Amino acid sequence: MSTPLDKLFTLSKSKNRAILIGYLPAGFPTQKKAKKIIKAMIDGGVDAIEIGYPYSDPVMDGPVIQAASEQAIENGAGVNEVFDLLKTSVNLGAPSVVMSYWSPIEKYGVEKFAIEIAKNGGSGVITPDLTYEESDDWRSQAQKNSLNRIYVVAPSSSDDRLSKVTKECSGFIYAASLMGVTGARASVSANAKQLVDRIRSVSNKPVAVGLGVSTKQQAQEVAAFADGVIVGSAFIKIVQESGAGRKGLKRIKQLAKSLSEGIESAK
Amino acid sequence: MDIAKIKSFDSDVLGHFGPYGGRFVPEALIAALDELADAHLTAQADPEFHKELDNLHKTYTGRPSIITEAKRFSEYAGGARVLLKREDLNHTGSHKINNVLGQALLTKRMGKKRIIAETGAGQHGVASATAAALFGLECVVYMGEADTKRQALNVARMKLLGAEVVPVTQGSKTLKDAINEAMRDWVTNVETTHYLLGTVAGPHPFPTIVRDFQRIIGVEARKQVLELTGKLPDAVLACVGGGSNAIGIFHPFIEDKSVRLIGLEAGGKGVETGFHAATISGGSPGVLHGTRSYVLQDKNGQTVESHSISAGLDYPGVGPEHAYLNDLGRAEYRPITDDQAMYAFSLLCKSEGIIPAIETAHALAGALEIGNELGKDATLLINLSGRGDKDVQTAADYFGLPL
User: Fold this and answer.
1) What superfamily does domain A4-264 belong to in CATH?
2) Which residue out of B118, B265, B352, B369 is catalytically annotated?
């Protein structure tokens, strides 16, 4: 059975176009505003949504997402806000996944978590700190609920590791473009293309590139060799600078549009 | 001495101690963790490595550390015989140097030139800065901003030793957040950098590596106690934050079933108040900093801030091997409040002329409890894990002494 996200990748492949994936933590800056931001992203041209589960110890994240997560947690965002925002996003027509560190999932209960994701229309879950060796429970629950299991691979991953981890993946493979944490970078490192090439040699699943992408030009660059472009910190930074009122939402939509144009021009 | 010998309760190859341990980290770190595990295994099997480390301990650390019998202190501990394993007399003033020198040698073997470390009380940071100076390595220490204030003396020591100290302003601004920042640095600079983790927590192989380098405490103490008393102690006590000094002294006694192993956690203002760092006594199984163990967390799996008068125990997690020993019933863990610890702190100062670290004072408070429970025929071995010079300011504030 294929998820809405699987179908999106199949469709975009037939058009030879990469998809744009936008990230936002649940409850940021408030749950109500988060829903408006998601809508602005989608209106601007974001194809799929990644809802972040705000976590107290996000070791994969740079200062921008850390600050957003902290704010969301202070506002009381937890598992209910994650499912609620997921549902909103799905209802707006975008294939959607949740990105969560392992601790909150394990605390909530792996089985229950998988059931709720499916119930709210989610396509799958990105698990940035779940190694495949620790995945037995998650694998069986995700399979039972027909969810994509999206793992992150990095430039430092050995060939052996790449082949094992990509076998575990479904939906897409999340390629971290560089060694480091999330956040906008002046340039997307040459490592990104190299890593995607290495992934292609062991897997024919879709590959999306994340970490560091924030501009139209970077989106175009990445879309030339990847099946998906993931942008998070750049959207959050707008909210931190301009809020999520009319001005902020307009800027969100503009960024989504410009990233989407970048991807289109890579065709 | 071959510290690689006599190991029980080893983890499986993936670093699991029963249901605990393992690896919950970004994929970017796996290659480095594998490299480290390999380097450790190779080193453990290499007599040259042990020779080099033993020699360092003899000529630099000051090992073996002595045992002091605390006769006057014992009067307050139900008359039980109280033996102190004097890790406070090590170079840099605590047990932390044992692990740091071992990992610094591994760093050299891996050809890395830069080490990063987290620190709470500053003891591990000082030990890391010391080893970096000794081996000519670049050293960056991450320390919660709140801790840089309550342990200002150790910040100055690290800087004098040539290390860069980075105050961490995220989250609760304590040890937990210092570890997050160190992990982020490591993810970014893993090719050139070794993360010299200071406790028996974190992803595999850290809990095993740090334990292997701290075992020397228990190996020496077991022999010393047998020589001194002709028998094994009735109980071995140590304070537990992450748990490195405790596992170090416990481990060689695990197979001695008659010996009670007792870890004393930081009960802060009392476990029932929620203001504590007693992870096993007051927490539940969860995942933090790359390992599964007991954690202080809320219903959403968010880490809850810990509280303790002792910066070195102020951590919402604990090593996975301790979690396993607890569940097996092989070791027991009790909370000690700030007030109990400070009473024991003062008592050791005045009855024995030894100023302990406030972390260590938790173990001493435990000895007062256990001694009174077991009575005068009992022998208690206590890991005096660190000295209290760094805590003079905190103690003076607590006791209202003008400085």
Assistant:
1) Aldolase class I (3.20.20.70)
2) B118
